[in-house]
Amino acid sequence: MRPYILAETNWRTLKDAPIELAVLPWGAIEAHNLHMPFGTDNIETERIAAESAGMAFEKGARLIVLPVIPFGVNTGQLDIRVNINMNPSTQFAILKDVADVLNRHKISRLLILNGHGGNDFKQMIRELGTLYPEMFICACNWFQSVDNSEFFDKGGGHADEMETSLMLYLAPEFVLPLKEAGKGLAKKFRVKTLNEKWAWAERKWSKVTTDTGIGDPSLATHAKGEKYFRAVVSKVSELMLDLSKADIDDMYA
Ligand SMILES: [Zn+2]
After folding, report:
1. Given pLDDT bands bounded at 50, 70 and 90, which one contains residue 197?
2. Cα gap 156→196, rounded to integer Å
3. Cα of 29 to ligand 1 centre, how many Å?
4. What's the maximum distance between 2 C-alpha atoms anywhere in the chain?
5. CA distance 170 to 67
6. pTM
7. Cα–ligand 1 centroid distance for 99 (angstroms)
């Protein structure tokens, strides 16, 4: 039993224990090219949350990891079979209920650990801040915590070399042999400006890819996944530790 994982711990351990920070992992359930499980984002995010929290706990952080929310925003993938979409407004309702409970129990710091590109909590955090001004709520995308190009030859963003490597390390039993994977080729917008970072439109996933993947997974290995996992965990645990110890009434210097 890990005392910093809510689903594993118990009332005896928790009822008087100090909790400085709550961590809410948030994933998605969606097709990941042909070779990886629908639960890829949940598996990755849950493991990164638990491992990072363990490392922060060892260094003195008093934190608790909540269960992963398994549904992400997949509005661009409604025609992809059994991809479950959770609308942003539903996510906000869930987030508000979680924050409300934490606030009642004087757990003032909340970190949303996000593992799915379609999830975006920024505006929700702004609105939550008006409802719970005594809380400090923040979010991070673990997949942006380190420079992925230092670990992988090919980029992409979905079921790519990074995600495949990570899954070969974390849950190889759920990954089909790489020869079964699609190439992860993705089309770009014909409106060229939409391919630049400053303009944005949602992509209709089934029109952009043929195998649901974006990014060539063929060079993925278990060893690359392990190295990347260690780097991400080190970075995320640093954030958790710093947030646990931060004085939320004095955040600026
Ligand atoms: Zn993913």
Report:
1. confident
2. 15
3. 9
4. 59
5. 18
6. 0.97
7. 26
